[in-house]
């Protein structure tokens, strides 16, 4: 660290010590195969350089001793010296890979928050909406935002003049606006699945594709209902009850079908920007894999676990039906033996409002963007859930938009991975120790 302040003589002495260390390594590994004369020459050259170090010889004498030892090593070093640059680079990257894999497997694991089930404690991918083209960032700002927040732009222009309409339909828990699952590319290279949304303007359509885990309902609400902060599902239900919908026949390659569309009230002209937003990356953090080997998880902890052994339709691929192997992050809300229930947006543990995290109280009072716990799934209509031995309950902080233990049950102790440690990306005000 302080090498810039080291004198030239000190640097030469350190270099001599490094050569002696290499010579000792060669002697240990090759003394059984070296001819006696070569072994003696190696020992002599190494001993001479050691003597110079002990006698605190000047730099010139040390350099001569190093040159003599280096010449001997070239003859006796075998595979240990001299090494080609390729061999040294391969060794370096191999050791680095082993260290990284070891750290990841036993100590610290990087993890990316994919969805907003823990929002606003942890952010999944979120959308930043621009109401018109004049508000959109310029090219320099886009580059800066991409580096610091992973922002990726989506811009959609109106194909026709008229009111923007949103198609609604059943989407398997992926929001209220109808969409299709299509094949695409991640980072322009890797095959992946995307969701494609088709919006209507006048009599024509325009589409936009987003990652499979992206919460598009938030974007559509902020774009077309910016003054209404309710979930889009509640806005749509309200409009359906008031008859603010349009029914149309849609012609596709697969045939003609009838669809319902929600009126947005947003009028656009052909060529105008009808939708503009950036997708900001989810929080990326390090997970502590060590602590839970020594201490029991505490209620209120952020909680990372494997889904491999959760036997539920929600943990299977909708197309293949195979078990999805993944990692989830929720908040630990129940330990073995606990009794849990939800009433009036409050989570009760063993008969009393749960404690252990600020998120519990904020949800109960519906403060600071916390929407409150919803009595759905296993907790429907105030039902009480008792946890069996070895089982833990994990719920999302964003209960109104979380597929959590209310639906697929409990987490086995063997599937616990660890707790969030540090948010290392993106570079926002959330950077730092994980809450």
Short synopsis of the structure:
This protein has 435 residues and is an alpha+beta fold. Helix content is 29%, strand content 30%. The protein folds into three domains: 3-76, Substrate Binding Domain Of Dnak, Chain:A, Domain 2; 111-115 and 282-433, Umud Fragment, subunit A, CATH 2.10.109; 126-280, no CATH class.
The level 1 CATH classification of the largest domain is Mainly Beta
Q: Determine the structural class based on helices, strands and strand pairing.
A: alpha+beta
Architecture of the largest domain in CATH? Ribbon
Poorly predicted ranges (pLDDT <50, ≥5 residues)? none
Question: Can you put this structure into words, describing what you see?
Answer:
The protein is α+β, with helices and mostly antiparallel strands and 435 residues long. It folds into 3 domains: 3-76, Substrate Binding Domain Of Dnak, Chain:A, Domain 2; 111-115 and 282-433, Umud Fragment, subunit A, CATH 2.10.109; 126-280, no CATH class. 29% of the residues lie in helices and 30% in strands. It is built from 9 helices and 21 strands. The protein has helices at residues 8-30, 36-54, 59-76, 85-106, 139-149, 216-224, 232-242, 358-365, 405-408; strands spanning 108-112, 126-129, 152-157, 162-168, 180-186, 190-201, 204-211, 245-252, 255-268, 273-280, 284-288, 302-306, 327-334, 339-343, 346-349, 352-353, 385-386, 391-395, 411-412, 416-425, 432-433. The strands form 4 sheets. Strands 1, 11, 12, 13, 18, 19, 20 and 21 form an 8-stranded antiparallel β-sheet that branches. Strands 4, 5, 6, 7, 8 and 9 form a 6-stranded antiparallel β-sheet that branches. Strands 16-15-14-17 form a 4-stranded antiparallel β-sheet. Helix 1 (8-30) runs antiparallel to helix 2 and helix 1 runs parallel beside helix 3 (59-76).
């Amino acid at each position: 660290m302080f090498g810039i302040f080291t004198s030239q003589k000190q640097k030469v002495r350190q270099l001599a010590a490094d050569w002696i260390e290499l010579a000792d390594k060669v002697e240990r590994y090759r003394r059984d195969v070296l001819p006696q004369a070569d072994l003696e020459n190696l020992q002599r050259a190494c001993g001479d350089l050691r003597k110079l170090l002990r006698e605190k010889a000047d730099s010139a004498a040390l350099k001569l001793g190093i040159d003599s030892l280096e010449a001997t090593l070239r003859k006796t070093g075998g595979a240990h010296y001299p090494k080609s640059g390729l061999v040294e680079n391969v060794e370096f990257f191999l050791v680095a890979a082993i260290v990284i894999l070891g750290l990841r497997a036993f100590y610290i694991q990087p993890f990316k928050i994919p969805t907003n089930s823990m929002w606003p404690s942890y952010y999944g991918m979120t959308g930043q909406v621009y109401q018109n083209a004049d508000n959109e960032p310029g090219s320099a700002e886009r580059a800066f935002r991409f580096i610091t927040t992973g922002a990726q732009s989506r811009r959609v222009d109106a194909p026709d003049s008229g009111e923007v309409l949103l198609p609604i339909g059943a989407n398997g828990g992926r929001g209220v606006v109808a969409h299709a699952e299509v094949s695409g590319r991640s980072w322009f290279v890797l095959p992946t699945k995307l969701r494609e949304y088709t919006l209507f303007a006048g009599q024509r359509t325009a589409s936009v594709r987003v990652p499979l885990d992206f919460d598009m309902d938030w974007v559509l609400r902020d774009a077309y209902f910016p003054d209404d902060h309710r979930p889009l599902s509640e806005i749509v239900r309200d409009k359906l009850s008031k008859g603010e919908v349009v029914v149309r026949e849609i012609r596709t390659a697969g045939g003609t079908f009838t669809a319902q569309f929600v009126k947005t009230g947003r009028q656009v002209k052909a060529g105008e920007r009808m939708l503009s937003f950036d997708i900001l990356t989810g929080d990326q953090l390090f997970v502590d894999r060590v602590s839970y080997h020594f201490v029991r998880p505490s209620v209120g902890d952020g909680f990372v676990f494997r889904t491999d052994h959760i036997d539920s339709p929600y943990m299977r691929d909708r197309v293949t039906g195979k078990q999805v192997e993944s990692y989830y992050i929720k908040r630990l809300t129940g330990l073995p033996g606990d009794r849990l229930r939800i009433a009036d947006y409050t989570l009760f543990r063993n008969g009393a409002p749960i404690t252990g995290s600020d998120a519990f109280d904020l949800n109960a009072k519906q403060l600071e963007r916390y929407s409150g716990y919803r009595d759905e799934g296993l907790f429907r209509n105030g039902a009480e859930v008792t946890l069996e031995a070895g089982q833990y309950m994990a719920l999302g902080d964003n209960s109104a938009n979380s597929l959590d233990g209310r639906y697929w049950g409990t987490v086995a102790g063997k599937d616990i991975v660890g707790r969030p440690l540090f948010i290392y990306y993106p570079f926002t005000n959330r950077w730092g120790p994980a809450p």
